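Weekly puzzle thread! Below is a chain. First person to post its structure in token form gets bragging rights.
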Amino acid sequence: PVWLFLGTGIVFLIAAAIFVFFSKSPVPKKITKPQPQKVVKTKENLDLHFIEGLNLENKGNLKQAIEEFKKSKNYLFLAYINIAKIYQMQNNKQMAYEYIKKANDYLHSTFSNPNEYIDSYMYLFSYYMQNNHFNEAKDLLKDLQNANIKNHEIDIMIVYYDFLTQKDVKNVLNNIDQMLKKGYKDRLLYEMLGYIYAKENNYPKAIEYFSKVGNSSVAEHNMAFLQFAQNNLENALNYAIESLNKKLDPKLAYFAYLLALKSNNMQTAYNLISNIDTQDVVNDFSIVPTLDKQELLKQINYKDCRIICALQSLIIMQSIDPIHYSANLASNIDLGNIYLSFGLMSQAKESYMSAISESYSLNQANKAYAYFKENNLRQALNYYQKAYQSNPSNPILYYNLALMYEKNYNFDKAKQMFSVLINRYPNFPLPYFNMALIDFTQGSTQTAKNYLNQFFTKQSSLGSKPKSVLVCNDYALSLVNKLKEPKNISVEDFVLLKAISDGRFDYLKLEKKYLNDKLHLNMKNFDMVDILEALRNFNPDLNRIMADLYLIENKPEKAIRTFTNINDYNAQDYYKMALCYLLLGYKTQADDYLTKSILLNKNTKDSNINPLFAKLIIQIMNKNLNGMQDLTKKVNSNKGLLSFDIEVKK
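Winning reply:
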């Protein structure tokens, strides 16, 4: 809860100022106090030891100051108080308490009328409350009550005691409310109300009462945290700076530094962090790196012609059928019989062997085609290999075998075989078309366009066009149309691509009209998940899109796996991979990738990436004050994909 981190401690902040608050508070009713006896300063009552103790204390000679205070005679109560204060400064709580007790005993043994020395009682009360000596504070309040002193400051002391010692604040709220109605307007009352409402997470009410405290560093300190709790970061920063201008507080300065970083006020951030010289201030704060998803969406600017053409090329690959044909075995057998009747034994044997070979080849090709129809592409590939080995001079079998390699995503082997067909049979159109599909899939758009143009040239020269050529011609025209009007991929397109990747076919069926009309993706029975996986393996642009999608979906581990499919990394790839590791908590790996991004980034003004700021975030997470000071000086902006949330401990 926010109330836990308001200020550096409720007790200390209020108790330290209680004397000032009480002594300056207006009195609703005039109280006649006994006139104190006038003290005439003479050589006899002027305490030179006390004065020398003050001088030594101001000079920092604390040990000698204590000795002089101990020799004091006329101002013994104040001497005890100053000795206690020095021990408290030295963090010697035991000795400080011992002299406070002496001051208390001296006060009770010497002063007969507490009303005359209310300020002294108030100082002791402030000390007791500040150091959690609640029993002594309670006894002191009883002494004042037993003296029947009618003083509104004592009423506030009682309410303050209840405020710090009672768990149920209803009684405290009721008493404060009654005092406000009577005209009491002490700042301490407003502060207590501010703390109570902050503890209840009623931030508007807490802000209302802290704003009534006035020009106080403590109130502005607390207002900074309350504004932060309501996510008003600019107001929080302003209140923190106003408080720091009145009183230096290293922890508040570090908090203001984090606010300035988050608000992109880099010069203010540097001024704040450069003046902090103690490592302890960072321990009460931590940050959690976050991704600016809106900025990531703005940066995605891939063109439809590159990604969707690649995706559609893969779909077309699965749509193309092998060339199915039947061999005329009878002609070879008849020819063999004729050779045999003329006694041409060698020629007859050759014809009979050709018939046998054609028979075996046809049988294997028919089996391959049957497996293809069952969508068993691996078995289809196996039997087309057997058919080709039986009849290696048949270009149709060679083409079908190359097509099976293509459908099984062995693009290197398929391109090698299609190239052989182009060299041997340059007027055969289909190898050009398949080369274009593979190049589209691999992101080589310009090379793919060249192969498409050659396909159109070769198929136009054919007289009677086979059905397989006509089908490929339609597919080629659809790809060309996409190239003419490229557009940015929309968020809806991303969702559809992701649905295909995850195999969410129920969703895709609902969006079938959109797929057909907008993306021109023809939904068929083949496995769309395999298609998209293949595209991610061969097309770096889609890998980048899918990685961005995973980042937006808070799945950095999947984004990292997707990035590994990219062969040629750029500065932005390394930057995003670093963010993935940082979001997963792997700061060392993240820092390594940020270094790589910096080395590759030639455009230092690129707002899409900001590796230096990300390195600064790592230094803050590591609580490395020197690293923060060094990098804050170098960072010009917090722009980029990385942001952070601030967490404040007790």
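Puzzle host: Confirmed. Bonus trivia for everyone else. Confidence is low (pLDDT under 50) at residues 1-44, 518-529.
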